[in-house]
Amino acid sequence: SSIIIAVINQKGGVGKTTSAVNLSASLALKGYRALLLDLDPQGNAATSLGIDRYAEGIATSHDLLLSPQDHPQPVSLGTNKPDLYPGSVSLIRADIDLLALGERRDFVLRDALASLAPAEPYDFIIIDSPPSLGILTLNILIASHHVLIPIQCEYLALEGLTMLLETLEEIRRAHNPALSVLGCLITMSDLRTNLSQQVVADVRTHLGERVFNTMIPRTVRLSECPSHGQSIFDYDRWGAGARSYDALTREILTRLGLP
Amino acid sequence: SSIIIAVINQKGGVGKTTSAVNLSASLALKGYRALLLDLDPQGNAATSLGIDRYAEGIATSHDLLLSPQDHPQPVSLGTNKPDLYPGSVSLIRADIDLLALGERRDFVLRDALASLAPAEPYDFIIIDSPPSLGILTLNILIASHHVLIPIQCEYLALEGLTMLLETLEEIRRAHNPALSVLGCLITMSDLRTNLSQQVVADVRTHLGERVFNTMIPRTVRLSECPSHGQSIFDYDRWGAGARSYDALTREILTRLGLP
Ligand SMILES: Nc1ncnc2c1ncn2[C@@H]1O[C@H](COP(=O)(O)OP(=O)(O)OP(=O)(O)O)[C@@H](O)[C@H]1O
Ligand SMILES: Nc1ncnc2c1ncn2[C@@H]1O[C@H](COP(=O)(O)OP(=O)(O)OP(=O)(O)O)[C@@H](O)[C@H]1O
Ligand SMILES: [Mg+2]
Ligand SMILES: [Mg+2]
Description:
Bound molecules: adenosine-5'-triphosphate, magnesium ion
Radius of gyration of chain A: 17 Å
Oligomer: homodimer
Shape of chain A: globular
């Protein structure tokens, strides 16, 4: 069945959405069936792919999470493109809604994903997470097989890593022994600056093998593509941004032993 | 009594901590008594000012929030420097801890700040918020007189503004009629790019007078200073970063009718 990858980091603005969108687009481009699930109330994944999440008849990830029995259908973006459940404003209260479910609260997303019955099964489900470590994020970790951790090439981005890795360890012990760190992805690197070089060296020293060889450079094209509602592959197919997300996808497929 | 300013935006990585730290440092440098309160579990404000929040005997903002009767003392950073309550990891559960308090839950921070009895009263209390709109953030909005909204010069940063302004309106109606938008601060601007110019134009069109004239440019020095544990005023006193936060402080003081 599907490989579920959570893109997660409680530090804000590190490239979670940009990575979730472009990884799922790249996988779909290579012929894999990919689903992008945005569990951040900001809903930036939909905007990044040109979808109006408030449009008539669009089912959101909140619908999937709390009413899976209604079999809400994702937005289809076309051939060789990911399907999408946009994020919803009602996810702001997700922690409270989940808390009210008592015992089951930790497994709501896992059960909702298990109930998905697409016409053609997904090879990958990519989850964009909010910048927090609350109950919704724990739900994401319990439902996932792997996590991808974007790390912005900034000093403050290093600070929360220990807290995040400890949380993963706790989830692995208590609920999801199979949860693995697929890898840590250095984002927005600008190797002309000393700071960037220092952060890259620190991250590779502390996290070793877990850090992807591929780094995502800071490029104007990557920051522009959301305003055109396109993934980097539609917006600037052969630029540095697309090439780096393409290399990341190949590195991920190799780590997973897939063609 | 003290003027309480919340630095808030649920979008991550937009410059909340950088602005809270350097605004409180700039106010203190001008001779105002300033307190910096970090209510983000990541605790980046302490690191940015060279404080180890795990050190012996340091009272955190979680202590102030949930046990104000013990009169936890802030960290003093010295003459013409802000005092600081560092953020604490236990704030991750703050939404749940507050929820458990029932009726009082919305006013916990307001009451905790009212119980502060510093030897010398603070002119300003600057609050660094987490990237969310949960119960803790609502507490911050109910306790504050003004909000300062950092807006990163990026397309995705525009998306959540409506949600944020609607939340402010709700808080004003239900709990805190005096809550005002002190201003919206454009951060990490790089006017060499079309995107930045476009975002600045959009923000000024939509938000008009609320946008500060002062913009904070993206500078390497501002991203480096947290790694030295110094505010920009100690790290690079006359560079573009310090000059822009200095100009912001003067603009804020003018808006508040203060010298
Ligand atoms: N490699 C890159 N080069 C240039 N800009 C980038 C890059 N990656 C992301 N960005 C831009 O940086 C900003 C933050 O990225 P993004 O929104 O993906 O982070 P996030 O971790 O999802 O944020 P949040 O914590 O708010 O969910 C966005 O405006 C995005 O367009
Ligand atoms: N004007 C600037 N120029 C260059 N770098 C900046 C600037 N402002 C902030 N930064 C850097 O950008 C990153 C994000 O800023 P910061 O951490 O202050 O945002 P935040 O809104 O507090 O993030 P979070 O949502 O995680 O709390 C940090 O690494 C910071 O050092
Ligand atoms: Mg995001
Ligand atoms: Mg912050």
